[in-house]
Structure formats: C-alpha cells, structure tokens
Amino acid sequence: MPDLHSKPPSAPLAQSEAYAAAALGIAVFIACVIGTLSRPVEFLASFWPANALMLGLLLRRPSLGYHRGTWLWGGGAFVSSSLLMGDGMAAAFLLSLANLAGVLAGWVFLKRLDRDTVMLRGTLSALYLLCGCIVSSLGEALLGGMATPYLFGGSMVKAIVMWFTGALICNMLMLPVVLSAPSFEAIRRARPGSWLGYRGLLHLLPLAALVTSEVAAVLLGGPGSLVFGVPALIWCALRYSLFSTALLCLAVGITKLYTASLGLIIYTPDHMLDAVSLRLGITLLSLGPLAVASFQAVRNELLDKLNYAARHDALTGVLGRNTFLEQCAHWLQRLASERRPAAVLMIDLDNFKSVNDTYGHAAGDELLRGFTRLVQQQLGPADLLGRMGGEEFAVLLPNVSHAEAREVAERLCEATRRELFTFSDDLQLHITASIGMVHQNAPPGHERIEQWLKEADYALYEAKGTGRNRVVTRAFAAA
C-alpha cells in the first residue's frame, strides 16, 4: 500500500478524497459482481472489469492513489464481493490480494508517464497503454497464479498464463473506456448532434460497416473471422471520438469472447492454447483502432488550438479583428432580416502610450489583459468583444434599445474608471476609457458593417477630443 509523505491535505480536500475513495470502492464492488457472473463453474471469471476500472479511476484522479482509504475501499470491495458470490474466506483473500497487486503494479508504471500520454492524448499512448496493461497483468498473474493451484488445483504455470492473458484482455478493453470517458461537465456542455438527414446517415456508415463485419464473422466462422471487423474499426476510429472507439472495441471484444465460448472455447487451463490464442488476438485487435483514435484525438486538439489562435487575439484571448467582423456580419444579417435593434461600441484606453513609455510594454500588456477581463464581466453571453488593434476594442450589442446600449457603455466607462489595475506590489494604476457608440433600431445588412464601425470610430474620436473618459453616441449615416 502506498505510503504518504506529503503534507496532509486541508479538511475539505481530505473529505472530498474520502468521498471519492468510497465512490471508487462502490464502483469496484459492482464491477466485481458483474465479473463474477461471467465465471465458469469452479474457475476464474472469463471477463473481469473491476481491476481495469479501479486502475483507470486512479489514473484519472492521481491523488486517489496516495490516499490510504482508496486501497482500503478497493480491497474491501474485492473481498466482500467474493464472499457475497460464494467464495470461501481463503479464496476471497487470495484472489483479492492478486487483484490489488495488479492494480498497484499498473498504477506505479503508468503514473510516471506524461499525463497526456496516460490519458490517451499522445501519439504513442496506445503502445504505452499496452505496456501498462502487461505490467498490471503480470503483477496480478504472478500472485493469482500461485494461489490458483491451492484454490482450484492444476498446474501453476498454466494458471499464471491463463490469469495473465485474461487480465491483459480485460485491461486492454476496459482501461481505454475509463480513461477516455467524458467528464460530467463535458457531457452537460455537449450539444447533441443531429442523427437525422443525409449527414446523419453518413455518420452512421462506419458503425453499420462494423456491425455487418461482425455478423459476417459469426456466420462464416473460421480462424480469419477474428479480424473481419478491423477495417470497420479503423474507419470508426477515423470518424468517431476516442471514447466512442474505445466503447466499440470493448463491445467487439466482449462479443468475440462470448461467441467463441459457445462450445468453441473453454476458459480453463485444460484448454489453455485455444483460450490464450483468442485472448491475445482480441487484445492486439483493439490496439490498432485505439492507436488511430488516439492519434486522431491529438490531431483534432492541435487543429482546435490552431483554429482558436487564428481567430482570437494572442494577448487578450478575445476575438481578433477579422473574426469579430465576420461574426458581426452574421449577427447583423440576422438582425436586419428580423428588424431588431443593435449597437456597436468602439472603446479606446486613454493615454495608453504613456503606460508603455513609463512602465514598459510588459505592464501595458498586463493592463490590456486586465481591461479585457473587466469588459467581459460587464457583457452578456450574446455580446461580441474584439480587439481591433493596439488599445482599441469593439463591442457588438444585439437586441438592445438605445437606452440599454448607452447604459452598457456608461457602465463600462465607470467600471474602468473605478478599477485599480495591479501589476505588482509597487505598481497599481487607474486608467480611463473613451467610448463611441452607434445604435440603430434596424441595423444595416452585413455588407455595411465596416461603415457602421467607422461611424462608431468617429464617435470615439469625438469622445477623446472632448475630454476623454466619456461616451459619445452618433447616428448611423445610412447611404
């Protein structure tokens, strides 16, 4: 059991870890019961998900591995489930010890790797995952294999080999599912995709190909049927998320294990070669799709970062000029067709050049970031904020009256004037902003956005020319 040498956590954090350890124990207990139901008469389970589940949860929340309660809850889950399903005390203790040894071995190996690699977000994640599964399975098999002859009789060597291959296939099928499963927050924020129409049907084609391949494998049989679904699984890995691919690999693996057991394979040491061959084949079958899906996940993440960088200002994180104009054009086109009002604000920080000249560009950059955060706090979720260049920003306020837009502008001006921007213990600054505003009850179409912003810019110049730290409105001069 891991020893703790770090500083004791705070009371709320310790309580949170205790609750998480208890939840892990309950989940492992349920998985143990499910695994026990797959056990042939008087031998080990043909599919045992509990160890991979516990290992995956430890890797997802690394702090749990250093919490003593985690191992106590996990061990209790293994022992109690074994007793519940009819095992004797000796069998429950020895089998549980082997399960914990496998989880511990896999955790010690995988926790040392880069977190992105462990969470299947690295180009070599699938290979490292296979290595971790091998280490975990060896740790489990060495203890379990030595106990098996005492519990069930037979050869120790055969028991170790059977235990190792059984643990390996379970880890390789279950662990990717646990590691890639989306968080509750990600599920809550996810937008359900449309499965209707032509594009929805195209999205289902890889899944349909996989189902067809597996049906053909069952109907035709033979040694080659094991790999019938490989092309379809690769297609799924290219089109679906990593989690979806991991689920499909799990479903295919369990299906093959089940169909092979219908009079073809018996998972006992007396039929070791057939069982070992099948288990290793299914294990390696899932490696290719997982490697492709992991690589795709890395690629998609890099493309998302590149797209974000191209569309957002690198310093402040708000929309860049071109993206702001593009999104404004879409908004104005919609507002013009619905005859709804809108307003545009052009904002400029007063005397910003003197901040750079006096305190340096690092202070100026930090001031721009702080001002951006301040503006975002004052805006609604539908409002657009973009950096037009230097210390000049623009805001689109859709569906607002003239009075409401003026109130937002005055509030921004007042918030900026009151804010004390802090850069270090000895550098705190007050700054003001000038704002030019243009409002229309029926805004121009998207092709006039540049002209509309130009009118707001004229109002901004007037605000700066008449004393700064104020809001000036201007009527839009329609052509």
UniProtKB/TrEMBL annotation:
BP-aspect Gene Ontology terms: cell adhesion involved in single-species biofilm formation; negative regulation of bacterial-type flagellum-dependent cell motility
Record-annotated membrane-spanning stretches: 18-37, 43-59, 90-110, 122-147, 159-179, 200-220, 232-255, 276-298
SMART domains: GGDEF
Domain GGDEF: 340-476
Record keywords, A-Z: Membrane, Transmembrane, Transmembrane helix
Entry GO terms, CC: plasma membrane
GO molecular function, one term: diguanylate cyclase activity
PROSITE patterns recorded: GGDEF (PS50887), PROKAR_LIPOPROTEIN (PS51257)
Top-tier EC class: transferase
EC number(s) from the headed UniProt entry: 2.7.7.65
Keyword Transmembrane assigned: yes
Catalytic activity field: 2 GTP = 3',3'-c-di-GMP + 2 diphosphate
Name of this protein: diguanylate cyclase
